[in-house]
Amino acid sequence: MCLNNICMSAFLQMCNLPIKVVCRANAEYMSPSGKVPFIHVGNQVVSELGPIVQFVKAKGHSLSDGLDEVQKAEMKAYMELVNNMLLTAELYLQWCDDATVGEITLARYGSPYPWPLNHILAYQKQWEVKRKMKAIGWGNKTLDQVLEDVDQCCQALSQRLGTQPYFFNKHLNIWKFTVHVLSKSGLENFEHYFTIMPTELDALVFGHLYTILTTQMTNDELSEKVKNYSNLLAFCRRIEQHYFGKGSSSIRLS
Predict the structure, then answer these.
(1) Which residue positions in the chain have pLDDT lower than 50?
(2) How far apart are CA 64 and CA 15, in angstroms?
(3) Cβ-proximal residues to 58 (8 Å cutoff; 6+ apart), any chain
(4) What is the CB neighbour count within 10 angstroms for residue 216?
(5) CA-to-CA distance for 138 and 145, rounded, in angstroms?
(6) In angstroms, how far is CA 202 from the centroid of its own chain?
(7) How many CA atoms lie within 13 A of 221 on its CB side?
(8) How far apart are CA 39 and CA 21, in angstroms?
(9) b/e map of 242-251 (b: 16 or more CB within 10 Å)?
(10) Residue 55, pLDDT score
């Protein structure tokens, strides 16, 4: 499953919505925006994670309703960080690193298509990505510089996550329980709020980190940057096992 599909699947699983994942070689060309993932609900087709989140929210399902305005702004800032750093780094590694392109990417991307279409579409995609990299100032970056950007992003995510299971503690009253405790002074009431639930940021970060940790590359430099942060590894395992029903994680430590 590709990166964007993992993000979308994680988000929909967290919303407790039933999904059926269908893999198509021409998915990009079926999408209204030309990008994946997209969902087909009744007679509506919605593509890309952001619009899908908004579409699902309009149907009454939101993972961030329990956040206050400051938390929502912070969540959006971290989502921008992930998209600007991790997504761009993944595209760079796949399409701008000569070793990865020659040994893995061209064959993987072109595999669903017959010759010569497989080569034509793969080189067209590479040209599009390189043009994007040049436009955002990544065209002349070295691999070491890209890996340093990834490390800085992971460090920021690790610090924000800390020892929490998810990135934000939401203020929800629907999980309120009153516990009656008998003490020397009589019966006392303690109100507990169970608010440990994921947000859209958790789905996005999981999709990116899980992809980095499990995708075959020509070397392990990228995944090793993530593995330096034990709480991010634990975060990925937790979501994989809880939302994707895996008793054991497919994330390798070495």
Answers:
(1) 1, 172-183, 185-188, 190-194, 248, 253-254
(2) 11
(3) none
(4) 8
(5) 10
(6) 7
(7) 15
(8) 9
(9) ebbeeeebeb
(10) 93
Six-digit token string for 20? 């059926």
Joined tokens for residue 104:
């893995």
> What is the phi-psi region of residue 7: left when phi exceeds 0, alpha when psi lies from -120 to 50, beta otherwise?
alpha
Say what percent of the chain tops pLDDT 90.
Answer: 59
**Torsional sign, CA 55, 61, 65, 66:** negative
At residue 241's C-alpha, the angle toward residues 236 and 245, to 5°, is 140
Cα separation of 23 and 185, whole Å?
Answer: 64
Tokens of 163: 């020892």
- Asked if 103 and 95 count as a contact pair (C-beta separation under 8 A), the reply is no
Helix, strand, coil percentages for the chain (3-state, nearest 5): 55, 10, 35
Contact 56, 131 (CB under 8 A): no
**Amino acid (1-letter code) at residue 172:** L
Q: Nearest 5°: phi and psi at 225?
A: -65, -40
**pLDDT value of position 250:** 54
In whole angstroms, what is the distance from residue 216 CA to residue 160 CA? Answer: 28
Angle ∠(142,143,148) on CA atoms, nearest 5 = 100
The 10s digit of each residue's pLDDT in 80-115 is: 999 999 999 999 999 999 999 999 999 999 998 899
ω before 51 within 30° of 0 (cis)? no
- E strands, 132-245, are 176-183, 186-193
Q: What is the pLDDT of residue 251?
A: 54
Return the SS3 of 246.
Answer: coil
Distances from the Cα of 179 to the Cαs of 114, 182, 228, in angstroms?
65, 10, 40
Q: How many CB atoms lie within 10 A of CB 155?
A: 14
